[in-house]
Design a protein that fits this description.
Layout (H helix, E strand, L loop, with lengths): L2 H32 L6 H20 L1 H10 L7 H18 L3 H24 L2 H22 L5 H9 L5 H27 L14 H14 L7 E5 L4 E6 L2 E6 L6 H19 L16 H15 L3 H6 L1 H7 L8 H8 L13 H20 L7 H13 L24 H22 L2 H6 L3 H11 L9 H8 L7 H15 L3
Parallel strand pairs: 1-3
Antiparallel strand pairs: 2-3
Helix pairs in contact: 1-2, 1-3, 2-5, 5-6, 6-7, 8-15, 8-21, 9-10, 10-11, 11-17, 15-16, 15-17, 17-21
Amino acid sequence: MTYQSQLTELKGMIEKIEYSKYTTDALIYWDKITYMPRNAIEYRSKVMSFLAGEQYRLLSDSRFQKLIRFFNGNAKNDFVTNAMIRRLIRNSESIRAVPEAEYQKYVQLIAVSEQVWAEAKEKNDFSYFRPYLARIFKTFRNFAEYWGYEKDPYDALLGYYAEDLTTETIDTMTAQLKPVLIGLLNQVEGKNKNGSAPKKIDIGPVSREQQQAVWTMILKKIGFNFDSGRVDIGSHPTILANSPDDIRVVNTFSENGFWGGIFNILHCGGRGVYKQSISRELMGTLLAESPTFAVEEAIGRFYENIIGRSKGFWQYIYEPLTDILPQLKTYTPQDLFEAVNHAQPSLIRLEADELTYLLHIIIRYELEKDLISGALDVDDLPDAWSSKYEEYLSIRPEHDGEGVLQDIHWAAGYVGFFPSYFMANVTAAQMAAVMAQEIGDLDQLMQQQSFGKINDWLTQNMYCYGAVYSGRELMEKVCRGTFSSTYYIDYLRNKYSEVYKLF
């Protein structure tokens, strides 16, 4: 067979893998968290397990593996083909390292665990979810051994979501950032207590229809294409992609959760803009997606915070926002900017302000690492969780729903994922600094109704490449160098100095 005929054969196999992967991970999962009836979970878990098995077998197929070996390092490969092979090796090795029967059991466990978690959260009762979480962490301790690591088993889990990321890197950055975050928070709390802080804006209950109208407006303003995507309400905010032309954004709804809904939609919608902007030519190569979860989260945090909590953004959306919610006309864009940057300790990560958010992530990282190492038992997790919150944020959960049960991540099998949020914040700030140097002040661009220039820069420098580059290569390309926490520290100090008039 010729080189070209074998390449055609390989891409045909990859298409089948994409069909299975995206249908299971996106469409079926989207339905599960949005419209699936509660009683359907048992059968749905079996379907998801079966499809995961099919994906496993496709990746393990002897002919498929032979073709990968043929193309690995082949001198005739172009840049994209080399990237495709690298990604195939990474994806297939991570799955094939786990015995098939164990992998299918894991998928079925996760499908059920998510439902149990949702019920436990509703009841504020960790004991209901505890045995499932114990099985999940036992499973991931096994996965770490299958995947391998040099120093720490947690590194194997980190590497699944962010190539080359290690506990050593996170520990170093934590040591740099934690005292800065706590120091700024203490200054801010002093302003809060003496009454000189910017005030939150409480507009009371906002109807589902009005909130959805705001979400739609914001998504259009940041460039989300509704001909290639949609928005639904589910149990947890997320974004799911069947292809660049089929993006599903999921948000949560609460009548009193208006502000949180805005930042969730910015986060997930921004990631949706990213996925919609990936080159269609990469379909059928497993490259029409972000290279790592950490990269995608960096974009989510960029839209949510760098954009969404900026002065320019609230000037950008002020008129359409107040058309939907006339009660906000009593406030100026400056009032809204200051209100959304009000900072104070809180229990819920998704409702946390930008300053305290990373402390929520550090807590989860430290607990997760101890659960994997065995230093912490699942039975002791609620107390350990509460103690960390008391130590870092001076508050303590009153029940499991606002404590250990608040996140879906562990129930969904995202063990090792939280540090991706950590790196996302750091890299988003650096990326924004580079962008401002090259296309101008981002606030001014939004004030001038020139948001398209921001998306154009991101598309040209990042989005279009999909997973052609590794996560680290892509972010170093976009950030014009290696990562540094300095940009994030400067960003926070400048922001909160302005809002709280600290200096």
